[in-house]
Amino acid sequence: MKVAIIGGGAAGFFAAFSVKEHHADAQVTIFEKSDKLLAKVKISGGGRCNVTHSCFQANKLSKFYPRGSKQLKKAFSQFQPKDTEAWFATRGVALKTEADGRMFPTTDDSQTIIDCFMHEAQVKKIQIAKQTQVNELVPEKSGYTLVFKGSKQHFDKIIIASGGSPNAKGFQWLKNIGHSIIAPIPSLFTFNMPKEPVKELMGLVVENATARIQGTKLQYTGPVLITHWGMSGPAILKLSAWGARLLHDKNYQFNVQINWLSIKSENEVHEILDAEFENIRKKKIANANPFGLPGRMWLFLLEKVQINTQIPWMELSKKNRNKLINILLNDVYAVSGKTTFKEEFVTCGGVSLSDVDIKTMQSSVCKDLYFAGEVLDIDGITGGFNFQAAWTTGYIAGKLIAND
Hints:
Layout: E1 2-6, H1 10-22, E2 27-31, H2 39-47, E3 52-53, H3 58-61, H4 69-75, H5 81-89, E4 95-97, E5 102-105, H6 110-123, E6 127-129, E7 136-139, E8 144-148, E9 151-155, E10 157-160, H7 172-175, E11 181-187, E12 190-192, E13 205-213, E14 219-226, E15 230-232, H8 234-242, H9 244-249, E16 253-259, H10 266-280, H11 295-304, H12 318-329, E17 331-336, E18 338-339, E19 346-351, E20 356-357, E21 362-363, E22 369-371, H13 385-398
Parallel strand pairs: 1-2, 1-10, 2-6, 10-22
Antiparallel strand pairs: 3-5, 4-5, 7-8, 8-9, 11-19, 12-15, 12-18, 13-14, 13-16, 14-15, 16-17, 20-21
Helix pairs in contact: 1-13, 2-6
């Protein structure tokens, strides 16, 4: 049996390993259009590779996916993060779990994962063709012909793991053979704030803020990072994933409301201030920050509501105290545009899940054609979830179970 894997990324490699695990005699070739293999694996997690997440219950794990949640819940019963951990462990790669649940190789180096994959490909005698773009996929009576520049090859089964694409053109070849494509748009992007002076605080992180898109129910709590173009960090990136379609429809022009303390009620903030008041009443407001915010952020917010930072707390008027509490809980910024990470872009959209049997990853449109990874309309928030979807769908696709 000759099997072609289109795409030399995370899902493609994992699908190839699964084919050899379930069909030891199969001839497997990975076709990668660029000269780079496992490009996202290399740069993920700041070069450390966020392999997966330590959420080991399928129903809970599936909730981290804005698109594909329902289908992945079934898929995770076949292969989930515990299986990922075990797979790497049997190949000498130990994973560690960080406080937020993200899992990395203990080496903190993505090259460890790449070396493991390249070694596995060698052991399993998987052929790899780089700089080999598939221009066309032609269904035959039995199997498929892949058309390359200047050559053609026939294969019995195909696994498409070609990744996301920033535009619909990248999916045209799949549309040509009858698949429905959900228009691709970016997910996981940062918010640009060209007119907001908060950018002057670039590099500053508030560890536990709540970001909300005004006029919607969309909100997320976590670290917010101030950048030279606006805001990023897990809370913002997760918000962008859940709001991908909505924010695209708004042309990325909207207001984001930040609760810097992640405290819901003003009364609770008043209580914190009252409890601390005796200790700080004679101290300058600039120097006595009872909420644990970074110093530069504290001063920035005080100046934003025009509170004299040099007066002692006991001279703060009731009106100004209310203004301060309001900005701590309801600070608003105008967003105009987004920034995506070109190498790490994550796509919302792709091959419609209505075209795929999630139990086998086989196309319901074309027999003996399977899908894995981000080419599908599946995407997760940041934290190892997109790789886990790649491992899971790749593993299932590699079983090559036909629905005869």
